[in-house]
Amino acid sequence: MTEQLTLYLAAPRGFCAGVDRAIRIVEMAIEKWGAPVYVRHEIVHNRFVVDGLRAKGAVFVEDLDDCPADRPVIFSAHGVPKAVPAEAARRGMTFVDATCPLVSKVHIEAERHHENGLQMVMIGHAGHPETLGTMGQLPEGEVILVETVADVAKIAPRDPARLAFITQTTLSVDDTAEVVAALKTRFPAIVGPHKEDICYATTNRQEAVKAIAPKIDALLVIGAPNSSNSRRLVEVGRAAGCAHAQLVQRAGDIDWRALGRLRSVGVTAGASAPEVLVNEVIDAFRARFDVTVEMVETARENVEFKVPRALRIPA
Length: 315
Fold this sequence. Notes:
Blueprint (H helix, E strand, L loop, with lengths): L3 E8 L5 H17 L3 E4 L6 H10 L1 E4 L11 E3 L7 H8 L4 E3 L3 H15 L3 E5 L5 H7 L7 E4 L2 H6 L8 E5 L5 H14 L13 H13 L5 E5 L5 H12 L5 E4 L7 H4 L4 E6 L5 H12 L3 E8 L18
Parallel strand pairs: 1-11, 1-12, 2-3, 2-4, 4-5, 6-7, 6-8, 9-10, 9-11
Helix pairs in contact: 4-5, 8-9
C-alpha cells in the first residue's frame, strides 16, 4: 500500500514580475533582432530558464568584451555597474537593460543620497551581481558593504553623522532587520529608504514559507544554488522550525534518502524558478506516495512591469 503524504504548496512562489520581465526582454530581443542576442551574466539565476533561452538564440557571457559590437546585448535582471552601459554606448553597441525596476529603485536611492553628500552603507552579499551592480552606481569608496551585525561594528565611515543605508532586494527579511537595528544603534542619524528595499516578492515568499514551516517534516525549495532569494528561503524555513530543508534545481536533484519517512512536505520555489519545475517535483512525489496537495496562500501578487519601448515591434 502506498504511503500517504500531504504536500503543502506555498503561495506566492516562483516567478516574480522582475524575472518575468527580464525573460520577456530576451525573447522579444531575439524576435526583433534575430539570433544571436548576447546577455551579460545569466538573465536570471535558473539553469532551466537559461538553457531554454539559449536554445532560442541567447548567448550568455560574463563580460562586455565577449560580445561582438554588431549584436545586441542585454544586461541581466540583477543590474550592472554604471560603467557597463557607458562602455557599451562608447562602443556604439545596441543594448537593453533588463535590470528589475525594484533594483533600479535602489540604484536611484543611492544616487540621490550621494548627491546629498551622504556615504552609503549597503547590506548585501559580497560578490553577488546585484550587490556589484548597486555598488557600481557610485564612485569607489562611496559604498561600504556589510553582511552581518558583526560587520556593522567594524566599519569606519568618513562621517558617522552623514550616512544612509540601502539593501540588496533578495535578503532575509529577519536577518536584515537585525543588521538595520545594529546600524541605527551605532549611527543614530543614518538615513533609511522611504520604502523597504527588500522586494515584495522576496518578502511574500519568505512569509509563505514561515506559514507552512510548522506543518511540515521537510521543505523543498526549488531554485538555483546561486539564487540569493532561493537560498534565503531554505534559511527562513529552518529558522521557522523546519529542521530539514533542501534546495533543489529540479525533481532529479531531490535527495530521497535524506528525506526519510515523511507525512508532510512543504514545496516552494525561488523567484527565478518556473512553475513547470514545481509541477515536476509534485509529479515525482506522486510517483512515490499517495499525495494530497494543500495550497497555503499568504498573499496575492498582481505586479507587472512593462518592457522597454525599444523592444516593441511596430505592427
